[in-house]
Amino acid sequence: MRRSVFGQKAAGALLALGLALLLLGPGTGWGETLEVIQPNQSLYPDPDFAGAPVGAVPAGSRVQVIRQAGDWYKVDYQGIQGWIHRQAFPAPKAQSGFNLPGVLFGAPAKETTSDEVALAGKGFTPEVESGYRQKHPELNFAGVDQVESFKVNPGKLDAFIKEGGLNP
User: Fold this and answer.
1) For 55-92, how does the pLDDT look when each residue is reduced to its tens digit (9 = 90+)?
2) φ, ψ for residue 20 (rounded to 5)?
3) Measured between alpha carbons, how far is 119 from 130 in angstroms, rounded to an integer?
């Protein structure tokens, strides 16, 4: 009995597609809506805090995800597109069940941003901050949030970096 070449190619393509879907697994998808949980968030023109914000996004706002690059999401908020850091959103829920990529290749390596490395060197990571806030609800973090919300003129920042001979 002779098999058709088309049937073999179609079966192979379907098998490859199924395997790719299993390996990629679920993640933040295009068009997904996320809710901002952190106050004083801004949209940036590039996935970098150094740029001048293009708009504010208050806590409780819902944004439409366009794409993701590292720890940044390109989103649409009320017709304005820009980049917002992942820390503006709740941590993704742990997946339950069978994890084929984890079984085949081991646990994925977590990428660390330069901001996280600098803070960790000082012993202050986002997880430490969150734990501290939970252990000390009586403290007023409004001052910290206010300082974190200060914006720096990108031109002045560049001049400061050049004048100080710093490597950005």
Assistant:
1) 999 999 999 999 998 889 999 999 999 999 998 988 76
2) -60, -40
3) 14
Determine whether 6 is exposed, middle or buried from the number of CB atoms within 10 Å of its CB (0-12, 13-18, 19+): exposed
Do residues 48 and 93 lie in contact, with contact meaning Cβ atoms separated by under 8 Å? no
Task: State whether the Cα torsion 88-93-94-98 is positive or negative.
Answer: negative
| 104 alpha-carbon distance from chain centroid | 25
Domains of the chain: 30-91+111-163 (2.30.30.40)
Q: How far is CA 63 from CA 40, 51, 122, in A?
A: 15, 20, 32
Inter-CA distances, 127 with 35, 74, 119, 133, 168, Å: 20, 24, 11, 10, 25
Pairwise CA distance, residues 131 & 119, whole Å: 15
Q: Can you read off the two tokens belonging to residue 51?
A: 């740029």
* Cut 0.70: pTM above it: no
